[in-house]
Amino acid sequence: xxxxxxxxxxKDGRTCLLRTPQEKDAPLLLNYLQTMSAETIYVLSYPxxxxxxLNEEISFIKSIRASFNRCMVSAFxxxxxxxxxxxxxxxxxxxxxxxxxxxxxxxKFCGLGLGGKILDELISMAIDLGCExxxxxxxxxxxxxxxxxxxxxxxxxxxxxxxxxxxxxTYLSEVLMRKDLIV
Length: 183
What we know:
Number of domains: 1
Radius of gyration: 16 Å
Structural class: alpha+beta
Order of helices and strands: EEHHEEEHEHEE
Number of strands: 8
Number of helices: 4
CATH superfamily: Gcn5-related N-acetyltransferase (GNAT)
Strand content: 25-35%
CATH class: Alpha Beta
Strand order of the largest sheet: 1-2-3-4-5-6-8-7
Distance between the termini: 26 Å
CATH architecture: 3-Layer(aba) Sandwich
CATH topology: Aminopeptidase
Largest sheet: 8 strands, mixed
Shape: globular
């Protein structure tokens, strides 16, 4: 699914362009994934994990743009890829009232209100897709993200114990959260 481009203002006065990624963005997306995986333990990858090839990333972008049940938003600040978000509506009859999502921001773009604005866009997209429930998983200890989700009306409904295992053997739980879109 392709979204309409939108320009938003950040807390520091800069503007951010939100749009669906294009094939030409594939190298930027791969670099972004590498950078983000090195910045925090609160994403699912380590820098030495296997990442898609350039051709695989281009195919992924094409599939997102052609999908009726998935959408991706890329956030560009001063021409730099600052963050991404994806939403995926379930397709089975029994679960297609639900969608799940994920958001990631490079650390230097945190605290500017960007995560909240992207989340607002995702909520709107989920409603447009006909979803009644929006869900996510967040890694234990990611207090900034959990606070944002709770501020936007998400509630914790479960916890997956030992959902994450760090390289040093430490286990972290995954907090499962949801927001009911139909009240």
